[in-house]
Every structure is written in C-alpha cells, then in structure tokens.
UniProtKB/TrEMBL annotation:
PROSITE patterns: FEMABX (PS51191). SUPFAM superfamilies: Acyl-CoA N-acyltransferases (Nat). Gene3D superfamilies: 3.40.630.30. The lineage of its organism: Bacteria, Pseudomonadati, Bacteroidota, Flavobacteriia, Flavobacteriales. Residues 174-299 form the BioF2-like acetyltransferase domain. This is Aminoacyltransferase. It comes from the Bacteria. It comes from Formosa maritima. GO terms for molecular function: aminoacyltransferase activity. GO terms for biological process: cell wall organization; peptidoglycan biosynthetic process; regulation of cell shape. Belongs to the FemABX family.
Length: 356
C-alpha cells in the first residue's frame, strides 16, 4: 500500500475517473471542483492511496487561506472503495500531518456515514468506521468551504424504465411533467460557451431575486466548461417559443447525478420548467444506468417541498463532520479577528470575499 500527494495533471485525471465511478465518490472531490477555489486565492491537493498502482481511495483537500490564516479542509471523505475501509485511520493520520506541514491552524473532514438502506453503496455504515476520538472532535468550526452533510435521494425503487418510475409519482407531479412536453418545450445540453453564459444569466437572476449567494459567471466559467468537456458536468437549457425559460447544472460522480444549481423564468403559459428540468436529469440517470438521482440538499421550505414531489428523501449523514485545531493560538486569533472584522465590510471585504 502506497500513497501520493499530488496536483499532477495525470493523477488528477485518474482521480477524477475514480471519483466518477466509485459509489462513495462525490462531486466535491473532483479536481475541477477543488480547483474552483483557486479563484479566491485558495489552493488544493489530492492524497491518493494505491494498491498495485490501482487507486483504492484517498481525499481531496482545499487549503483555504487569507492573511496568515490557513485551513486544511476535506469537503467529503476520505473515500475508499469497499473492502478498504480499514485504511481510514492511517489516512486521517496522514491528513493531520499534512495539514501541519502546510502550517494550517485547523483541519476538518466530512465522512459520509449512514445506516439508511437506500444509499448503502454510497456511504460508510456506522459500524464500519471509527474516527479516533483522541485525534479529532465531532463538529465543524469552519464554514467557508462547502462540506457534505447528506444526500437528497430519489430512489428509483428497482424500476427498469423511466415510464415505470413516473407512474409511481404523485398524480400532480406526473401531470406537471407531461404538461411541459405537450407545450413542446425543448431541452438541450449546452456545448458552447455563449449558450452557457445565456443559461447562467437565468440562474443569476433567480439568485438576485431570492437574495442568496451564487458565484459570478467569470469565477466559475472555466470549471463548468472543463467539467462539461470531460463529460462529467452537464448544463441544460430549457426553451419555449425560442426563449430560454430554465437552466440547470448537474455533475456525475459516485455513480449518480447530483443537481448543483438551476433557475427558471416565469411567464405565460406556465410551462412548469422546474418539473421538466429535474425530470430530464432523472431520464439522464436512467440512461446511464444509475439507481437514483441526488436532487440536492437544502433550499427554502418551498424548494424542499417541491423536491419532495419527486419522492426525494433528505438523508442526513450521521455525525459527518470532524475537526482538529492544530495551532490553538492562531485559530483563536482567527475567530476573534473574524468576529470583529466581518462587520466592517469596507475594511475587510477584500479579504473575506475569499471565504465564500
């Protein structure tokens, strides 16, 4: 058993292939996703475990930094293929030592642990994983890198076809999906940057209206295009009467599709854009032979209720987050400084914008 810390392009490609296919993989560990944080002045690296030159697990870490504060954050994992869970303790020890080598004052990781039967192949069972209590504490003290905490799972319930599945959905959901197709909506997967920008403008408009955070197009454009070029990310545009009425972006990792973001444009007639966008991702999931679709966690009460119309189950991981303060003095100084400076937006905006 060997391991390597790397950002080498050859290893990045091998890692991405592993994360896409291993059931415990997650889009938060894809190299393009990790690399997107460099926009804010952060860095990243991979720790890859090998057996006979074959990847059997590891992690991807975001090295968040501002001024002299540095944090070593693993947004999901470490992840290991089935049968190699025993390597987790040694991997966590490496994680801690690596964070120290980078002079980070704090490290954090998030393990996908659950006993829920619907997602067993995508998680660790609680009886199979034990985090050393002497080394790490349960919880999360750093919130500026998104970390996994669950999965909003639409299980296909052993349905062999999408037609079988749609017949299991509530009558209202089936009616709204079919209405869109009767109105002759058109769905296309984007291949050109100009189409991507036009579709993303719909998402930006929704974020502005809903007053929620969204990365700017220029900040995320390169990563979206890269994921799309590798057939790991898909950007869908929904048109009606030659006008864009909806847009959605999803990523394939862990042998399932995860919806990342989307937006719709209201108008007459109401084409039920949100319903048809998610239905198209379900169709894509069936096409790829997956057993379910992650419609994504979170959202307002209304959004969460909408997702439930597809049979989605919000499954929260069981105590997923763990941390270790490596330099108590620096971390305490960070907490005090952040608490004071975050209210002085004029003075600190140039620094805190990195912690999105």
């Amino acid at each position: 058993m060997t391991h390597v810390f790397t950002k080498d392009p050859t290893w990045l490609k091998k890692w991405d292939d592993f994360i896409s296919k291993t059931p415990r993989g997650n889009h938060l560990l894809l190299s393009d996703w990790l690399n997107s944080y460099t926009t804010y002045g952060f860095d990243f690296e991979l720790c890859i475990f090998l057996e006979d030159e074959t990847i059997i697990g590891g992690y991807g870490a975001v090295i968040a930094k501002a001024l002299f504060f540095k944090f070593y954050i693993v947004p999901h994992g470490p992840v290991f293929s089935k049968g190699f869970e025993k390597e987790i303790p040694s991997c966590l020890d490496l994680l801690k030592q690596r964070a120290k080598k980078h002079n980070c004052c704090y490290t954090q990781f998030s393990l996908p642990i659950s006993s829920h039967p619907s997602i067993q192949e995508h998680v660790y069972h609680p009886t199979k994983v034990a985090v050393p209590e002497s080394q790490f504490r349960a919880g999360k003290l750093f919130d500026h890198v998104y970390c996994s905490y669950g999965i909003n799972w639409i299980d296909f319930n052993d349905c062999n076809t999408s037609e079988e599945f749609i017949n299991q959905l509530p009558a209202k959901t089936r009616r709204n999906i079919r209405l869109a197709y009767r109105l002759e909506v058109e769905n296309t997967l984007v291949t050109y940057e100009s189409e991507l920008k036009a579709g993303y403008s719909i998402v930006e408009a929704n974020a502005l209206q809903g007053n929620y955070a969204l990365r700017s197009y220029e900040d995320i454009k390169a990563q979206l295009l890269s994921l799309m070029s590798k057939d790991k990310g898909y950007f869908m545009i929904l048109r009606h009467d030659n006008q864009i009425k909806g847009a959605s972006f999803s990523i394939q990792a862990g042998n399932y599709i995860t919806n990342i973001f989307g937006g719709t444009k209201k108008g007459k007639p109401d084409i039920k854009a949100g319903y048809v966008l998610h239905w198209e991702w379900i169709l894509k999931s069936f096409e790829l032979g997956f057993s379910g679709y992650n419609i994504s966690m979170g959202g307002s009460k209304g959004v969460r209720e909408f997702k439930a119309h597809f049979g989605a189950q919000e499954i929260f991981y069981e105590t997923p987050h763990y941390y270790r303060i490596l330099n108590p003095f620096i971390f305490k100084f960070y907490k005090k400084s952040y608490g004071i400076l975050k209210n002085n937006k004029t003075f600190i905006s140039g620094i805190l914008k990195r912690f999105k």
